[in-house]
Amino acid sequence: MMTKTNLQQKTIAFIGSGSMAEAIFSGLLRHELVKPANVLGTVKTSADKQERLKKQYGIQVKTDNKEAVKAADVVVLAVKPKDAEAVIQSFAEELTKDKLVISVLAGISLNNLEAFAGKEVPVVRSMPNTSAHVGASTTAICAGSYATDEDLDLAESLFQVVGSVHTISEEDIDSFTAIAGSGPAYFYYFLEAMEQMAAEAGFPPEEAKNIIAHTIEGAAYRYLDSDKKPHELYQEVLSPNGVTEAAFTHLEKHRVQKHFLEAMKEASRRSGSIGD
Ligand SMILES: NC(=O)C1=CN([C@@H]2O[C@H](COP(=O)(O)OP(=O)(O)OC[C@H]3O[C@@H](n4cnc5c(N)ncnc54)[C@H](OP(=O)(O)O)[C@@H]3O)[C@@H](O)[C@H]2O)C=CC1
Ligand SMILES: O=C(O)[C@@H]1CCC=N1
């Protein structure tokens, strides 16, 4: 049985301190699993962000990736996928076999990440989602050729702080990304329409927010708790010739579910081709 890594002993550098990196390090700091002094972030240019992050979290924020990587035990790569090659190459000199690189980049394969590093370094590819901000990400991890079980454990420990973790095979990461990485956006898209409906009906915004959030929360709990299929769960709601049936008649006429499935397949295809 392997022991879980003590993150408190590690210095973690976030290369790219955008929305995904902030979601992760804010969770680590909130749970006191790392000390602010042991967290480094880098940005490209944003001086405003640099100041805000320093002030808000007490972490160091720099623009020098190489310096940050040099000081780190763990490097969390969180720039945009298009910047992966140039950014990794800019700090590759500082990478060693004892320095774990965890990538959160969509679409950049372990093979590519290792090739950009140009040497045998441990890499874990991950796919978190923005619910990490509230400790509720559903994250996938998969190990590169030089990553050990301890490296994978460390990545798991890190992501467990901000939610649940699934160790998967890399061949499944595109569909995982389409379902869980992009997933929060789909729900926000639907709840935007629910907000509009509530606003048109005259509900005060705060009350509407509560009604909508708890409706989604309740449906998620019921889905988790029940052995019933989604089809059975929504049939429970649909009274013959009733209210929900009126909505479903419209949804089915426009084949919304079919289009939604196709949309996720597009997302998965995009995840598979970003690195090309
Ligand atoms: N957003 C999401 O829901 C998810 C995103 N991801 C992945 O996370 C990664 C980051 O996405 P996200 O956080 O949304 O993006 P953001 O645009 O919010 O953040 C990107 C960050 O990278 C910084 N940056 C850009 N170039 C460099 C550079 N050369 N050196 C150092 N830092 C640099 C930017 O700095 P500056 O602030 O100065 O511009 C910014 O802080 C992507 O690869 C994405 O695929 C994965 C799962 C979910
Ligand atoms: O849209 C993207 O490319 C990233 C990956 C999953 C969520 N956001």
UniProtKB/TrEMBL annotation:
Belongs to the pyrroline-5-carboxylate reductase family. HAMAP family: P5C_reductase. Its EC number is 1.5.1.2. GO terms for cellular component: cytoplasm. NCBIfam families: proC. NADPH binds at N65. GO terms for molecular function: pyrroline-5-carboxylate reductase activity. It is found in: Cytoplasm. It catalyses: L-proline + NADP(+) = (S)-1-pyrroline-5-carboxylate + NADPH + 2 H(+); L-proline + NAD(+) = (S)-1-pyrroline-5-carboxylate + NADH + 2 H(+). Residues 11-107 form the Pyrroline-5-carboxylate reductase catalytic N-terminal domain. Pathway: Amino-acid biosynthesis; L-proline biosynthesis; L-proline from L-glutamate 5-semialdehyde: step 1/1. This is Pyrroline-5-carboxylate reductase. Pfam families: F420_oxidored (PF03807), P5CR_dimer (PF14748). NADP(+) binds at I15, G16, S17, G18, S19, M20, A78, V79, K80, P81. InterPro entries: 6-PGluconate_DH-like_C_sf, NAD(P)-bd_dom_sf, P5C_Rdtase_cat_N, P5CR_dimer, Pyrroline-COOH_reductase. Residues 170-272 form the Pyrroline-5-carboxylate reductase dimerisation domain. Catalyzes the reduction of 1-pyrroline-5-carboxylate (PCA) to L-proline. Keywords: Amino-acid biosynthesis, Cytoplasm, NADP, Oxidoreductase, Proline biosynthesis. It comes from the Bacteria. It is an enzyme of class 1 (oxidoreductase). It comes from Marinococcus halophilus. The lineage of its organism: Bacteria, Bacillati, Bacillota, Bacilli, Bacillales. GO terms for biological process: L-proline biosynthetic process. Its main location: cytoplasm. Transmembrane segments: none annotated.
